[in-house]
Amino acid sequence: MSNAPLKLAVIIGSVREGRFGPVVATWFAEHARRHGSFEVDVIDLAEAQIPLELPADPPALDPDPQRPAGMTDLTRRLTEADAFVIVTPDYNRSVPASLKAAIDWHFTQWDAKAIGFVGYSGASGGLLAIEHLRQIFNELNAHTVRNYVSFPRYYLLFDGEGRLLEPDEPAAAAAAMLDQLHWWASALTAARSLPVA
Ligand SMILES: Cc1cc2nc3c(=O)[nH]c(=O)nc-3n(C[C@H](O)[C@H](O)[C@H](O)COP(=O)(O)O)c2cc1C
Question: How far, in Å, CA of 156 to CA of 123, rounded?
Fold first, then answer.
């Protein structure tokens, strides 16, 4: 097995003007870099062109469809990643449409890869989106790790500069998730070279 660090893509799932997602993603990416076992790439879905109108054929029949030119960079970075952490709020108790569209436009990019979550929101702290994402990624043959980070009522937890008022517990949760993610990503990266069962 190669000793090169695994590639972790941190995906900012919300794209609306004034969103809080980048603050949470910046916080998490700093912890992921400090963890030391991943090469970290922060992917902002707002920088990609992701139409809601999907290709004519389902991904199982055409896993690599013609995609808009504005999605080329996103697709390349998803393909290169060994593991993902999705940073997501709850939108009406579920996943932002921007994130669901980015997932649905891809297929092999998720296959047999490890996925972790950082949620934030009102009372539900992103957990409702995270539970839906676990179902979605199950269909895509990805493995979602047990541990996660959640920020319910995030607006009470961060100051105006995007710093956590009480950083220790979230830092411990992030480290625990990154440990688990690294174990699974290592195992799955090795397994991806084996013949498919
Ligand atoms: C369309 C929409 C639906 C929302 N639904 C929920 C919800 O179901 N539960 C919740 O706790 N917060 C909900 N919120 C509040 C968001 O979690 C909060 O606005 C958060 O900042 C959204 O993430 P963003 O700023 O990165 O877009 C909703 C916000 C929007 C815009």
Answer: 11
